[in-house]
């Protein structure tokens, strides 16, 4: 599950970088975060 969260966070960082190209927000760097450290235990999702 942590792999999906890390992929999502990385994708959002990239999308924000691309979407803010010609704005003042583009000069700000978004730090990387280790999502695996934030997750205490794996969630179990049941698919019906």
Account of the protein in words:
The structure is a single chain. The protein is mainly α and 48 residues long. The chain has one domain (2-38). The protein contains 2 helices and no strands. The chain has helices at residues 2-19, 35-38. The longest helix is centred in the first third of the chain and has 18 residues, at 2-19. It is elongated. The mean pLDDT is 83.
**Structural class by helix and strand composition:** mainly alpha
Distance between the termini: 18 Å
For the CA atoms, what is the radius of gyration? 15 Å
**Residue ranges: pLDDT <50 for 5 or more in a row?**
none
The helix/strand series, from N terminus to C terminus, equals: HH
How much helix is in the residues? 40-55%
Helical segment count: 2
Number of domains: 1
pLDDT averaged residue by residue: 83
Strand content: under 5%
Count of strand segments: 0
Largest sheet: none
The geometry reads as elongated
What keyword list fits this structure?
48 residues, 46% helix, elongated
Task: Briefly summarize what is shown.
This protein has helices spanning 2-19, 35-38. With 48 residues, it is mainly alpha-helical.
Topology:
Blueprint: H1 2-19, H2 35-38
């Amino acid at each position: 599950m942590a792999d999906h969260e890390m992929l999502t966070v990385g994708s959002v960082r990239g999308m924000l970088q691309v979407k803010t190209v010609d704005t003042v927000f583009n000069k700000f760097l978004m730090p990387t975060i280790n999502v695996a450290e934030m997750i205490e235990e794996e969630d179990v999702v049941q698919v019906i």
